[in-house]
């Protein structure tokens, strides 16, 4: 097949584009109060959203980043609320340590149980996750009900996540669910307000898994 | 397994949450210049991003929405640049008309060809897509190089997409690639500036597929 005008080899490679983007972000963000360990995560979140307001609203608690790195290096699972996160996360870096990423929201038993209890599949998927494994990273980018259920399970001592990345997006309960998360004294990464979403959560997980890989 | 405090059945169902969210969006957005046909798409984009600035920056050209509806109803493919879009799109509504969503960026032949030509997999995935089928909806949320290549293929008469949804996010070439798209006189949906991403593109595709399904 003829593709028309022969294109030239790229003069700028993808890695260079990422490097240039990170430079622009650092320059335009200016002063901030993130630690040198936190900043790469914020930088990737801004890279994935082009949203400095969102970047500035990121909140870290406890030894969130170290806890995340330890969890990945121990091969413990990442649990996400929606398939988009699973699709976006760099699985190779998780699998290198024996881990992986799991989403239970479309499992037949989850769908059936949600129907039976007249509740959301997102809630039941969190219940299934805590049965499947202890610890791990819980990454929520879409469903406030998943985050609220996880918070309840933590409060009742039934869930013991290594790290919670809680960034559901939306107009009903999303900001409130994150307000509730911030009241917990466990390792978490979240943001203040309505914004969030799968791409943001993916960039946070990938940032931490890069750090985990670089420890080798 | 004991899940602690028995939870109450939800008093608010997911559909009600969506309805309430749409009400809040309409109220807070206030005056705008979108047509009644365009507005549901903008509304879903704001719903997926909680970002009114992004919502206001959406641009439609030609008979973009009708072209998208026709394409889906004719069972023509949706082509996306990244797997996250494939994961997020409601496939059942596309398949109902015999269509589906395709992502070529991780295909072995695409990877090999990109290496051989020293270019990006995103570019080669667009070339593979135009070989695979005529027409269809091209949905780009991540890679400016994919959008720029698609624009080149359109200009040279090699690609004839029914609709282009062009919303790559980022700091290098993303805004510029959308500026180039806006110079074409073909049906497109895009936004002005650096923002965008997979979740935004997914909400646009889903909004159009809902319209397509409602025509029945």
UniProtKB/TrEMBL annotation, chains A, B:
One of the record's GO molecular function terms: precorrin-8X methylmutase activity
Q: Which gene encodes it?
A: cbiC
Q: In which pathway does it act?
A: Cofactor biosynthesis; adenosylcobalamin biosynthesis
Q: Keyword annotations for this protein?
A: Cobalamin biosynthesis, Isomerase
Domain Cobalamin biosynthesis precorrin-8X methylmutase CobH/CbiC residues, every copy: 16-209
Question: What protein is this chain from?
Answer: Precorrin-8X methylmutase
Q: Does the keyword Oxidoreductase apply?
A: no
Q: Which Gene3D superfamilies would you find in this protein's record?
A: Cobalamin biosynthesis CobH/CbiC, precorrin-8X methylmutase
Where would one find the signal peptide in this protein? Answer: none
Some GO term, biological process aspect, for this entry: which one? cobalamin biosynthetic process
Give the record's family classification: Belongs to the CobH/CbiC family.
């Amino acid at each position: 097949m003829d593709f028309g005008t022969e294109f030239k080899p790229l003069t700028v490679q993808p890695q260079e584009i990422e490097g240039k983007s990170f430079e622009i972000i650092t320059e335009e963000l200016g002063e901030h109060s993130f630690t040198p360990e936190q900043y790469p995560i914020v930088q990737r979140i801004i890279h994935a959203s082009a949203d400095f307001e969102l970047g500035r609203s990121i909140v870290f608690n406890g030894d969130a980043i170290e806890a995340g790195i330890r969890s990945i290096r121990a091969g413990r699972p990442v649990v996400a609320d929606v398939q988009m996160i699973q699709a976006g996360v760099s699985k190779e870096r998780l699998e290198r340590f024996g881990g992986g990423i799991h989403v239970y929201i479309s499992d037949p038993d989850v769908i059936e149980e949600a129907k039976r209890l007249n509740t959301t599949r997102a809630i039941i998927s969190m219940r299934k996750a805590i049965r499947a494994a202890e610890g791990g990273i819980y990454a929520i980018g879409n469903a406030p009900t998943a985050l609220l259920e996880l918070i309840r399970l933590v409060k009742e001592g039934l869930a013991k996540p290594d790290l919670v990345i809680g960034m559901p997006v939306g107009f009903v309960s999303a900001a409130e669910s994150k307000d509730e998360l911030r009241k917990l004294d466990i390792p978490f990464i979240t943001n203040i307000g309505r914004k969030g979403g799968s791409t943001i959560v993916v960039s946070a997980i990938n940032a931490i898994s890069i750090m985990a890989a670089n420890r080798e």
